[in-house]
Amino acid sequence: MTNRVGLGREAMRAALQLRRSLAIAREEPVNVYDIAATIGVEVRFLDAPSLEGMFLKDPHPTVLVPSLNHRPRGRVSFTCAHEIGHFQLGHGTVVDEYLEGDAEARPKSDEEFAADTFASSLLMPRQAVLQRFLVRGLEPSDADAQTLFTIAGELDVGYETLLKHMCWGLELAGNDWLQDRRRTKPKEFRAAILGSKDSRRLVVAGEHWPQLPLDLEVGDYVAMPTALSVEVPALLEPAPAGMLWNVYRAKTPAPPVSPSVPLPIRFAWLVLVIADCSSIDSSTTRRLNERPRAQTDRRKQSLRGVGTRAFACVRE
Ligand SMILES: [Zn+2]
User: Residue 170 and residue 131: Cα distance in Å, rounded?
Assistant: First the structure.
């Protein structure tokens, strides 16, 4: 029998080592697409509903993930981190197919287990999770479901993924806590914030947003508490919202820019990166964004060493 404890430790060490090599402190959340760009891994979003993710080793390291149209945003970024794990752990080309149902219930190969552990450790190291509660003056076990939903967005993981990691991975809470928080579903938060029952892609960017760029696809929603005053660029349009929230919909993709031209997107302290994955010609690849590191000075602390990033959307 393989030594899963040893494999898990090795994967965790590799993830923490990668964060260290990029000068990202353990208590800081990360933007996984920036990390990919920094280590020379190209990320492509595919209009491919049956794909969970794919890592191509040759001719150059490439991660393929489904467009956000096909998966919740936290799931896509976790998959991207998982595929980066295959790269960092020296695995070969891997195709991860999308399977309905509870992924936990299925047996995993050693490589899949290691890539999952890598992804959890890259996105949710203990200190980064604890810091989200610390900035709110909360103990993890005292946080209500809505706060946990917001924190999951800040760490760019799914609500359930955060709950399970806090309970089983980090042992910050017990099973009763897990069962209790699990009773509330993310679509209930979305419905409350958007003021409608349609379950749409939504991220909450409140006063504790960790100063990371926020990646959106056209059609995605951003919610901000009405108490915050923000400068809204024309790339976003106001959308209907429940009480206490201002909601904006990503309307226009950020124009392609050359590295020497600053991207004119500033959303108060939030940098938006908006891609349009809906209107790409078949068999073409389009670079939608390329943003020089120099303009992202507000997040120097959290993303030192990160260079330009590119988004490419392709159809199958
Ligand atoms: Zn995999």
Answer: 13
